[in-house]
Specification:
Six copies of one chain form a homohexamer.
Chain A lengths: L4 H8 L3 H10 L6 E2 L3 E2 L7 E12 L16 H6 L6 E5 L11 H9 L4 E4 L6 H7 L3 E3 L11 E6 L3 E3 L2 E3 L4 E5 L2 E5 L4 H23 L12 H11 L1
Parallel strand pairs in A: 3-4, 4-5, 5-6
Antiparallel strand pairs in A: 1-11, 2-6, 3-7, 3-10, 8-9, 10-11
Helix pairs in contact in A: 2-6, 4-5
Amino acid sequence: MTLDQKIIDALSGVSTATLTTVLLKKGLRNVWMRGTRPLRAGQPRVVGRAFTLRFVPAREDLATPASWSSPTSTRAAIEAMPAGCVAVVDAMGVTDAGIFGDILCARMRKRGVAALVSDGVVRDGAGVLGTGLPVWCQGVAAPPSVAGLTFVNWQEPVGCGGVAVFPDDVIVVDDDGAVVIPAALLDEIVPIAVEQERQEAWIMQEVDNGAALPGLYPPNEEAKARHEASKG
Amino acid sequence: MTLDQKIIDALSGVSTATLTTVLLKKGLRNVWMRGTRPLRAGQPRVVGRAFTLRFVPAREDLATPASWSSPTSTRAAIEAMPAGCVAVVDAMGVTDAGIFGDILCARMRKRGVAALVSDGVVRDGAGVLGTGLPVWCQGVAAPPSVAGLTFVNWQEPVGCGGVAVFPDDVIVVDDDGAVVIPAALLDEIVPIAVEQERQEAWIMQEVDNGAALPGLYPPNEEAKARHEASKG
Amino acid sequence: MTLDQKIIDALSGVSTATLTTVLLKKGLRNVWMRGTRPLRAGQPRVVGRAFTLRFVPAREDLATPASWSSPTSTRAAIEAMPAGCVAVVDAMGVTDAGIFGDILCARMRKRGVAALVSDGVVRDGAGVLGTGLPVWCQGVAAPPSVAGLTFVNWQEPVGCGGVAVFPDDVIVVDDDGAVVIPAALLDEIVPIAVEQERQEAWIMQEVDNGAALPGLYPPNEEAKARHEASKG
Amino acid sequence: MTLDQKIIDALSGVSTATLTTVLLKKGLRNVWMRGTRPLRAGQPRVVGRAFTLRFVPAREDLATPASWSSPTSTRAAIEAMPAGCVAVVDAMGVTDAGIFGDILCARMRKRGVAALVSDGVVRDGAGVLGTGLPVWCQGVAAPPSVAGLTFVNWQEPVGCGGVAVFPDDVIVVDDDGAVVIPAALLDEIVPIAVEQERQEAWIMQEVDNGAALPGLYPPNEEAKARHEASKG
Amino acid sequence: MTLDQKIIDALSGVSTATLTTVLLKKGLRNVWMRGTRPLRAGQPRVVGRAFTLRFVPAREDLATPASWSSPTSTRAAIEAMPAGCVAVVDAMGVTDAGIFGDILCARMRKRGVAALVSDGVVRDGAGVLGTGLPVWCQGVAAPPSVAGLTFVNWQEPVGCGGVAVFPDDVIVVDDDGAVVIPAALLDEIVPIAVEQERQEAWIMQEVDNGAALPGLYPPNEEAKARHEASKG
Amino acid sequence: MTLDQKIIDALSGVSTATLTTVLLKKGLRNVWMRGTRPLRAGQPRVVGRAFTLRFVPAREDLATPASWSSPTSTRAAIEAMPAGCVAVVDAMGVTDAGIFGDILCARMRKRGVAALVSDGVVRDGAGVLGTGLPVWCQGVAAPPSVAGLTFVNWQEPVGCGGVAVFPDDVIVVDDDGAVVIPAALLDEIVPIAVEQERQEAWIMQEVDNGAALPGLYPPNEEAKARHEASKG
């Protein structure tokens, strides 16, 4: 299920910091994927549906270069990715085996994948940067995936950075990392998040003008009224 | 697929220590599930086919007491377990939420489950011990599973204690913890393991008689000949 | 503020497993103190008000044997503990310096302290067991507190095992470890917990009688009715 | 208590590497705060008195957006910070909840706070960089503080990165991270540190000229004499 | 260099808790080996010279069953151990490969080795217990050493549980774990430790009699005088 | 034993990612040193023989500034390093004490050391960068080595980042970190690695041209034939 362009546009203007605050107010405290750092500084925010991949630990009879030709390989998973999706890879936080290198990332880029998000690492970091695919992960490592991981499936529920992600949940990722918006909460969250972002911009302006924090952030009734008036 | 009683009998006489040595000689170094300690000291060795369960991290919209009534709950998984299986639960090593308590373990016992193995913990430790179900895990914690975990499925490939386990792999578990024998290697491994166990018993006797280690363990040709002769 | 004996009696019959479930239903998922294991197996459940102690890391100019004679020492803190309290010691999870040894624990016992709970360790484990003080912690270590910790104060808010504990919160601790009930929630929680415990006992009986889990645990309307009828 | 400008000037010329060596020679081995990395590369060295803040773990009844309006909120703490201080925030090493975002950092900057040092992380990293406040911490995370932390007080003794920091201790922070000079040792340490820095500069010059290390670093009597002569 | 029986007798009456306090007063804060827990509860205190063994991580071309027959194998190291020594094994804290099993421990027992101390684990835990060799370590694991470790040498300086141990240092190990006394400090430490143990016994008696802690522990001048008088 | 310039030239064109794949196919899965990140982004690949250094944990009687003048100091080790070697320092993964600062790195640079690789950290990071010595490690810390480490020897087998390294093994290090090629496998590995690198370049070109992954990476017979033809 692709994502409405209006929602992409709206969320592209909302920071993951704001989104996590809004989700926490709805009772969701665990939506930020630990270890999802931008591979390249200053990558623009990305919004897309989650396409999930799942690894289990390496076992020498399964995690072999030969497995790369199997019908359930990472290669097959990549060929199944729709344009605009955000690939979310559960690598169980493993940091000494790279899930993908330059060739797989180049292919994802070709297929129009919007971003790669993982709690693991990539390999051939320089090559991956060269492909232009936006990547958020824990960093780089030289060894191939099979040195530490066995690929098992795609489009299943996964854990990524300590967060549950289901296929078709919405992922937003920026300088602060990756956040999941559960698919069922999307319509409720978006307008609140957009408004919250606006309010914070006004508060920031007030602080720049020398205002003190108590009563302003969060705003009391008087401050809210001033904000409303300022929209005038 | 149940397990032939002959294989159960054979493997019941082989320690997990010996099994890991035999598997390592076949190139498999990562078959012992970290954190699988016996909840009760001195539990007899258990052998059975793996029946797998899989959790992802808790998300407050999913990991709720209400989820316990869902068709994909741990309750439903337990009702699907065949007698004689070893339940292998991927709890991602989480130690602050108990996967099962006394009620679920009592039901597993009733269904003839041979053992519960997990890289997580159980809750109501005293109650679980009371059910008589043999359990290997990281210990106990009071909170319910939904405090840290979302249950997603059963009979899928899982990671448990850093080891890949597939449904129907064979699990052997004793005082040293749980070991997986890949289903495809079973027939090859069993006779070698039985013989290795016999050889180690003879070596132990030699050491008790005052023999030095070099040349004896591992045995050189002369020692092997003496062992053969001793079989009379 | 001491604790009403009726509440102590009521909570003495409720497991920490049940308490965490009840608190989770009120939105509190983080109330179980990680690492609080009984030093002696089979210690009875303890209920009491929290008396908190706080350490920061060791700095060689502060964490010295001389500091043990200071007015803000652990010795002074112990002399301030009321009978019946549960001492909750924030040791920041440090496991290589023992917060207390046999002498301090003997004195706590003399003063009628109900239990010692910490995310750290004690020292002279054999001596501490000898004092009869019930202790829940991560284990034992030989070195004195000042090898790793600087004591700073008592009766302040602390973190213990990843959980916030405030003076006069209520602590319940059994084989599964220590749980905090926020003081303000006590009256609301106790009756629900007692009822939940009763219900689980009935469910356990049903399982013993061969009932399957779905519909029973958690109970659907029909099961609830049968439970009510059974109270007859 | 503000810091004499002469001391600021002197310490501004001394690296934290040199300071830790000088403090170790006085018996203090644990003065460097782990995890205090510059958020922006190449930030100049900062020297100031410590203004401490303390968090405990999040508990859902306390760690709420509503708590931000409480009299003991981080907002109130910031309004109490004197110009020139270094805010030292004990976040217990938590890296999945940001202690402050752009608004709070902007206000600290307005108040003349010299730097923010924490063993936790900030949120809205891009926004924080935009405020110009010099920050040393473990990095960034999107979630608000209340997702993982409960704020409890300011100007108490704290632990930060495994180091004890008391209000009014002196903090020096540069590319290598943050170091505490206990207030009582300040006068003794400063002249030794300045001289040590001078000596190391001379040794570096000697190495550049091709000198071998033994006898030079640390300098034997002959080398010391040459250094003295070079001051000529 | 064997250890004088008088010193063994003296140290056999001193707890590791007391020893670490005495060593800390001499400036040594890091002498207790983390992770050295007794494999069997209630093992008597052991005192002996350190005989060190060193592992590095496993590399598949080196860490093989064939390596067990090499001249630098653990087998050869065991044959070099003198009676009465304490074997101190640097396993780098690895807990998923057992350094020794029942056969090697049986041989050590035969050679009169006083105890085995390691920051790693043993395998075939039941078998090791059966040999009667006193063992302090992190627990048990099924896999052989070569699954995670490459043996490289004996009688070299090693790290064990985060502590530096040199051949011929003195090791004391009891319920609280293992402590190193640097060989050069032995003569100075022993009499102080014996006296400290005596003083603590007297203090414990005072506490049993109802004395409060301040002024007693540590004793002020008046308490010291009373202790002296009590020696009568 | 220095390294043939032809081998240096060949390996300078092979990424560590490719090398780890080739070594894995030979059964070596554990050859990449965890934590070896480039101190300066974009450092060129370095190839050289390993010159090893070994630390154990700090003990206050040994790890002193005075030890820097000892005959077994890091200073002496540096003076023994041959030009072109890669210094591999086993710091046991310690990240709160810097193994070397600007002066030692400047001297290594003078002696023609090709690179410094460690699983620990350096100190005076700005100064170290100024020396121009290529460094791969976990980052920077202010404290001197003796705050956490005792230097014991050079040119022994060591562990670095969880990998066994022997003197004269070959080290290749680039943006993805450091990889060891066991000395005995060098001749076999080099030509395979060079060819593998060439094949991956061709595959990358195919992907750029829009080819799908299955059958291409790894190449099936048809793809291999096309690659051969392309060499034409």
